[in-house]
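Chain A, query sequence.
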Amino acid sequence: MTETATLAESYTEMTELLLPNDTNNLGRALGGAVLHWMDICGAIAGMRFANRQVVTASMDHVDFISPIDLGEVAVVQAYVFNTGRTSVDVKVDVRAEDPREGEERKTTASFFTFVALDEDGTPAEVPSLACPTEEEEVLREEAVEERKQQFEDLVERMED
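Chain A, predicted structure.
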């Protein structure tokens, strides 16, 4: 295994056409379907980074900001922005695209933590994160700050 891997090496994008089986009675994406897509995309980013199987350890708070309507395309993007010894932190963003109108909007985002496993299913070390380009460093810093802000907002809501 390499000692470092880059944010860009982990970058993953997947698309899903919202079909009736994944909608509620309003014709909008079921939250569970969106979370499922986010978990898959995040895991692929984690596997690309770690070069091994990963399992979901946690998912941070999720706000559904905007719905995804029947017939729209959900675009799910993920990348590793931080690492531990055996874990990777992944930012996952979702946006909706209307292919007929060419419009898009952000629908949700969250942070996932995955643990890398060796062939025996035991936690295994992951490479350290490298951000060799300015774009990668900016993405990493934005994710770190956004996660920090999300945590601070959660603490504030709990104190109210």
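The mean pLDDT is 95. The domain at 4-159 is CATH 3.10.129.10 (Thiol Ester Dehydrase; Chain A).
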